[in-house]
Records
---
Amino acid sequence: MSIPRIAIGTPAEATRPEALKAALAEFFSTFIFVFASCGSFIAFEKLTGGSVATPEGLVATSLAHAFSLSAAVSAASNVSGGHVNPAVTFGALIGGHITLPRAALYWIGQLLGSAAACAVLDYSTGSLDSATFALAAGVIAKRARVLEAALTTFGLVYTVYATSDAKWGGTAPLAVGLLMGANILAGRAFDGAAMNPALAFGPALVRWAWKDHWVRWEGPLIGGGLAGFFYEYFFTPHTYQPISPADY
């Protein structure tokens, strides 16, 4: 029983048209997702004068995350695979489904897409304060890291793997979106439940608020990597073959 190897690839792959198109697709899809999800925080507080930390706010923003992520993943699935999350890309890299140069392009596209979305929101609304991700009182960074890794991102990346098989008929965008919305309800009150380094990166960059930002990277990357490893090791150990992003 062998574990799939990480596909290192070659530097020349980063200049191939199909790889650049995939990175551009990740940029636009991440822009769509971050604009809608972060915008929902701002809109809720603007319209109600209340906090998104209320039960009503959690429901509203979880729906916005679920719908926007499903749409963003669907929009890019035929070009890049619709990762829209550096942790998903990392899980695919660990599983051998994407090469390192292409993964780097995806990460660049995702981070730039998030930054662009938040810059537009900041200009349009004048504030992104309510869209930043912060730890709740009494929640320490180490615990938040575990929450991001085990309870959120691991589930997201595992679901991507599990539902990307052709026999599921393309249900991955819906499944991932629904799980994202559910995890907002479960984790928002504790650590903000970003579950996505790109989603946390845009607001942090625009507002220059980096406190505990490392949690948004370490937790999701650990969870995404473990999900890719376990799914490949336990469920597809004998059927591994490198596939193009459009195939999953």
Note: Helices lie at 17-48, 55-76, 86-94, 100-125, 141-163, 172-191, 197-207, 215-235.
---
Amino acid sequence: MHLYGTANINDYGNLQIGGVDTTELAKEYGTPLYVYDVALIRERARGFKETFERLGVKAQVAYASKAFSSLAIFQLMEEEGLSLDVVSGGELYTAVKAEFPKHRIHFHGNNKSEQELRMAIEHNIGCVVVDNFHELHLLEKLCEEYAVTMKILIRVTPGIEAHTHDYILTGQEDSKFGFDLQNRQAEDAVKISLKSKHLHLLGLHCHIGSQIFETTGFILAAQKIIEKIAQWKASFEFEPEVMNLGGGFGIRYTKEDNPIPPSRYVEEMIKAVQQEVEKYQLSMPEIWIEPGRSLVGDAGTTLYTIGSRKDVPDVRKYLAVDGGMSDNIRPALYNAKYEAILANKANEQHHETVSIAGKCCESGDMLIWDLPLPEAVSDDILAVFCTGAYGYAMSNNYNRLPRPAVVFVENGESKLVMRRESYEDLLNLDIPIIK
């Protein structure tokens, strides 16, 4: 059994997180329930941020809020001194309502609307990461209308894709994101930005993948980008103030995953950038990164109540829980793997292998296949680990299931940060045609 952060087994044999018994959380708040280990989030945030400080490199660590967005998580990231990466008007609105420092908000996305860009300008956020020529010209036009200057990064595709332990070198990047580094699109975008009276080009941004367990891809991306910057400096005297190397740092979901500490990612990235700028006699840029999953992913645990059971002789044993693809769609979308235990029988030996079914009316609503457990019965509490990223963020109301509640736990206390949806909430947007 692998336990994360502050999780342990208490004297009653129950799973405990943040000093709080998870079976008591299930009783108080109901299930399904997302439980976040605040101390682990703080530890991960400091692991990134303090490495930059220790090595004396100017930097920003921006939480990639698409992993999980809420007022409470934004306030927690602000407490830890992080910046914030948003990708929609809704995430920006949440950040504003959370009173997050606007100068530390970065706005991403490949199809920002005019309304969203106006929001960014009106709230005077810190930076817009420009993704394409349409957006570049639209943002310049809007900044001229408002008579303001907006700081921007140009997102580039460096021809590297990295996932887990694999990385791929490509020629022209086939991606919906960013300006290609090899076919002069990125260079043209840089030149347009430098000529603009209303855009302040801070530098370049790239993002090479997700769930990455090695530093090779980040190093190759830095090398390719800085090589191109050296050419641009020689031809039109451009040097970036900022180099944003994105996120994608991996976490452990199952025993097959072997992530590295946040400090190692940072150390290797800094070393690569320093070597390359020294090689080409360039100025050292400020380094920005964007961890999301690696900050909140394994800090989140989902609690379910077991309901029905179906034993198919010589085939499979199914246990159904009171959630499923409505609160964790990742297994159905891309066969994501998870580990789990019975929170109320955490010390007991495994006696059977079962498969965990969700309650949605879909045969593909399976959370975990072939999970070893103690003998499970109705009303046992199942704890599924590492659901803190893209669980609530991708939750939905399929089959008219209300979204679960979210609680933060720390130092023996729990705090409700997102209430459970009610059936009445499901009707908030409905307009009947017959009164």
Note: Residues 8-30+299-426 form a domain with the Lyase, Ornithine Decarboxylase; Chain A, domain 1 fold (CATH 2.40.37.10).
